[in-house]
Amino acid sequence: MSGGWATGSQTSLREANRAAILDSVKRYGGLTQVELVGSTGLSAATISTIVKELTSSGLVEVRPTSRSGRRAQLVTVARRVGLAIGVQVGTRHLRVALGDFGGEVIADQTLPLPSEHRIDTTLDRTALLIVDLLDRVGATLDELVGIAMAVPAPVDVATGLISVRGVMRGWDDEPVAQVMSKRLGKPVWVDNDANLGALAEATLGAGRPFADVLYVRASHGIGAGIVLGGRLHRGFAGTAGEIGHVQVDPQGAICRCGSRGCLDTVVGADALLAPLAGSHGALTLRDVMHRAMAGDPGCTRVVADAGEAIGAVLASAAQALNPQVVVVGGELAETGEMLLDPMRRELRRGMLPNLIAPIDIVPAMLGQQAEVMGALATVLENTDVADTVDRAATTREEER
Ligand SMILES: [Zn+2]
To answer: Do you know which SUPFAM superfamilies this protein is assigned to (predicted)?
Structure first.
């Protein structure tokens, strides 16, 4: 064996180990060295050496944490690598969060949106909000590394286009990523809201202890995101997990997607509000939730029936995917067991009893921030941290 070959091999092994550690830290938004042993399979000594190297080259930071009750050192991507923006375009609201590369949300803001909002005005508002948030923390667009956006429709992430027509009216065939990227001069990624919620809940929230997680987002519409082996599974054209368009009533109403009797036509906001119009008058989804939580029998019934209908569809999805846990988020999940209990019963009733790993349904942990946190994680995942630090250093040199 030649000496040169041995050196080359050692260098590439070290590079691979560095990449594995950096990748783990990026994915989980900060890990202790003990957790890094578990996630990379490397020895504690190797991790300690490489974390020291990465710290001195400014790629990661180590700070104290008291997570899980014990004091430890948390390794995160260095905050000074830059800033990221996560956007959630909802059916009735727009949420924008500014985060650093250390995995913290620094500032966020939510605006109400009119129903059937237009793409051009919504993107205008988004761009204004981004500049506003940066301004609020005394930062500039130069410090922004990228933007990721969550939308309530299936997305082909390769093109950034919505992959099913009619689901998001007025947004079909619109190159959202290119339009936003041109406006702000930054890279932009677009993905489905439930996918980004799934990513956040699986890596930072209720799904963190598990590798295979099914995340359900119950809000104005219903969707799901699938994480298998710690990775988001989008499917070939981005429609994996679209449980909202599974047919539950062959004689049901025509759905926005053109099919008939989709789950969305049974548990979407319009479908939940319609049967209450006669007895309760005009309500919003929030009103129904508040009244249900205050004990109103009609509103309670609507939420419980929704849980049952969702649970029946989840049984098929969970039977096909065999996840360890189902995490339920979105606004409707704020009603807690009122929604989750009937959902859990239907899920178990419709599934093969699994003695080894009985599945459970748990509430989400990140609340209404899950989708923007998933978007922030997407920017981090798509950013070459070492390259960004190098470029920042070069810019500083040139300015000197
Ligand atoms: Zn449909």
So the answer is: Actin-like ATPase domain, Winged helix' DNA-binding domain
Confidence at residue 67, expressed as pLDDT on a 0 to 100 scale: 65
Identify the pLDDT of residue 81: 84
Distance from the alpha carbon of residue 107 to the mean position of ligand 1, in angstroms: 35
Q: Which CATH fold would you assign to the domain 206-365?
A: Nucleotidyltransferase; domain 5 (3.30.420)
pLDDT at 36: 93
Has domain 3-76 been given CATH number 1.10.10.10? yes
Q: How far is the CA of 30 from the centre of ligand 1 (A)?
A: 38
> Distance from the CA of 271 to the center of ligand 1, in angstroms?
13
Ranges of the chain with pLDDT below 50:
1-4
Residues within 5 A (CB) of ion ligand 1 = 245, 255, 257, 259, 262
- HEC secondary structure over the chain: CCHHHHHHHHHHHHHHHHHHHHHHHHHHCCEEHHHHHHHHCCCHHHHHHHHHHHHHCCCEEEEEECHHHCCEEEEEECHHHCEEEEEEECCCEEEEEEEECCCCEEEEEEEECCCCCCHHHHHHHHHHHHHHHHHHCCCCHHHEEEEEEEECCCEECCCCEECCCCCCCCCCCCCHHHHHHHHHCCCEEEEEHHHHHHHHHHHHCCCCCCCCEEEEEECCCEEEEEEECCEEECCCCCCCCCHHHCECCCCCCECCCCCECECHHHHCHHHHHHHHHHHHCCCCHHHHHHHHHCCCHHHHHHHHHHHHHHHHHHHHHHHHHCCCEEEEECHHHHHCHHHHHHHHHHHHHCCCCCCCCCCEEEECCCHHHHHHHHHHHHHHHHCCHHHHHHHHHHHHHHHC
Q: For residue 249, what pLDDT is reported?
A: 96
80-195+377-399 topology per CATH: Nucleotidyltransferase; domain 5 (3.30.420)
pLDDT for the residue 72:
81
Q: What is the pLDDT of residue 340?
A: 98
Looking at the chain, the domain(s) classified CATH 3.30.420.40 span 80-195+377-399, 206-365
- Tens-place pLDDT, residues 8-63: 677 888 889 999 999 888 888 788 999 999 989 999 999 999 999 999 988 999 98
Distance 151 CA to ligand 1 centre (A): 16
**Distance (Å) from CA 242 to ligand 1 centroid:** 9
What residue spans in the chain does CATH classification 1.10.10.10 cover? 3-76
Distance in Å, CA 164 to ligand 1 centroid = 10
Model pLDDT, residue 3: 41
